[in-house]
Amino acid sequence: MVGRIGRPHGIRGEVTIDVRTDVPERRFAPGTHLCGEPPTATPLVVAGARWHAGRLLARFEGVGDRDAAEALRGRVLTIAAGQAGQAADDGDEDAGNLWWDRDLVGLRVVTVDDVDVGTVVDVVHTPAGELLAVEHVGGREVLVPFVREIVPTVEVPVGRIVVDPPPGLFDLE
């Protein structure tokens, strides 16, 4: 998922985009084909995109007025996993700190004291931030806030994530 189409902006077919990607300049570049929900819907081709007042505005080929833009409202925009490429371009300052969700799923989760606590089964995106869904060794799922204070180390090549959990996060109820 790279975004969700919001309300129309103006009368010429532009829409607001709820961005769900760390690389919007790549995902919403002119000529980019975006699929989505429902899967049977015709892919949209980006005609242009720009930032306005902190929101991404996009135009799609064949969408030339407000009514056509309104018909797209709520549509989820996706790309195929094979189109994702690397999470960061070579030379990016944050290249070592960017991962796709698929890179994290399946990683072992250990505490800073090297105690095994489980495996990442999903990355949950919320308006408040990202959460790691960890299948705890006890069999239940624990949601771990994906913030540097709690998740100081992600080692994708090694296959593990190190967490420094607050008291009680992994305790059994």
TrEMBL record:
<keyword id="KW-0690">Ribosome biogenesis</keyword>
<comment type="function">
    <text>An accessory protein needed during the final step in the assembly of 30S ribosomal subunit, possibly for assembly of the head region. Essential for efficient processing of 16S rRNA. May be needed both before and after RbfA during the maturation of 16S rRNA. It has affinity for free ribosomal 30S subunits but not for 70S ribosomes.</text>
</comment>
<dbReference type="Pfam" id="PF24986">
    <property type="entry name" value="PRC_RimM"/>
</dbReference>
<keyword id="KW-0963">Cytoplasm</keyword>
<protein>
    <recommendedName>
        <fullName>Ribosome maturation factor RimM</fullName>
    </recommendedName>
</protein>
<dbReference type="InterPro" id="IPR002676">
    <property type="entry name" value="RimM_N"/>
</dbReference>
<dbReference type="InterPro" id="IPR056792">
    <property type="entry name" value="PRC_RimM"/>
</dbReference>
<feature type="domain" description="Ribosome maturation factor RimM PRC barrel">
    <location>
        <begin position="102"/>
        <end position="169"/>
    </location>
</feature>
<keyword id="KW-0698">rRNA processing</keyword>
<dbReference type="Pfam" id="PF01782">
    <property type="entry name" value="RimM"/>
</dbReference>
<dbReference type="InterPro" id="IPR009000">
    <property type="entry name" value="Transl_B-barrel_sf"/>
</dbReference>
<comment type="similarity">
    <text>Belongs to the RimM family.</text>
</comment>
<dbReference type="InterPro" id="IPR011961">
    <property type="entry name" value="RimM"/>
</dbReference>
<keyword id="KW-0143">Chaperone</keyword>
<dbReference type="InterPro" id="IPR036976">
    <property type="entry name" value="RimM_N_sf"/>
</dbReference>
<feature type="domain" description="RimM N-terminal">
    <location>
        <begin position="2"/>
        <end position="80"/>
    </location>
</feature>
<dbReference type="InterPro" id="IPR011033">
    <property type="entry name" value="PRC_barrel-like_sf"/>
</dbReference>
<comment type="subunit">
    <text>Binds ribosomal protein uS19.</text>
</comment>
